[in-house]
Design goal:
Layout lengths: L4 E6 L1 H4 L1 H7 L2 E3 L5 H9 L5 E6 L5 E14 L10 E16 H6 L7 H4 L5 E3 L2 H10 L6
Parallel strand pairs: 1-3
Antiparallel strand pairs: 1-6, 2-5, 3-4, 4-5
Length: 141
């Protein structure tokens, strides 16, 4: 089965990339948007995820891997149906890719990061994922 590609967002003051690296994995909790919940539910183990610092950062800063698929979000009431996935760090980008660079790149103009910027979890087409890695001067092994 083909691997899918995603992007998740976090305020660096709430949960920064460096915290994920230090903890080695995290359950991605707290998503409270129905569209984003649908995306989280679709994420599969081994999918790759761009890690975006929102707010004061506004840049893609790393790549994570899904280590566990959607499960009930322990920060929500069970009846609400919110889900979380587990992520582990793969690599920090050699150069953060700022939102301004994403918006300026014609190949990325139709991505959800540009068109639906408020979502905290979103799919990223493989060509866009690879383009962001190239802008970040990072190759996956």
């Amino acid at each position: 089965m083909a691997r899918s590609h995603w992007l998740v967002k976090s305020e660096p003051s709430a949960y920064a990339w460096d915290q994920l690296v230090a903890e080695k994995r995290t359950l991605w909790t707290g998503v409270r948007n129905f569209t984003a919940r649908g995306h989280l539910a679709a994420i599969k183990k081994a999918d790759l995820v761009l890690y975006y610092h929102s707010g004061e950062g506004k840049a893609v800063v790393g790549v994570a891997k899904v280590t566990a698929e959607a499960q009930p979000d322990p920060t929500a009431k069970a009846a609400e149906g919110w889900v979380a996935v587990e992520l582990a760090p793969v690599v920090k980008l050699a150069a953060p890719v700022k939102l301004a660079a994403v918006k300026a790149d014609r190949a990325l103009a139709e991505t959800a990061l540009v068109r639906q910027s408020r979502l905290s979890a979103m799919p990223i087409p493989k060509p866009a994922f690879e383009r962001i890695l190239a802008l970040g001067k990072t190759a996956l092994r």
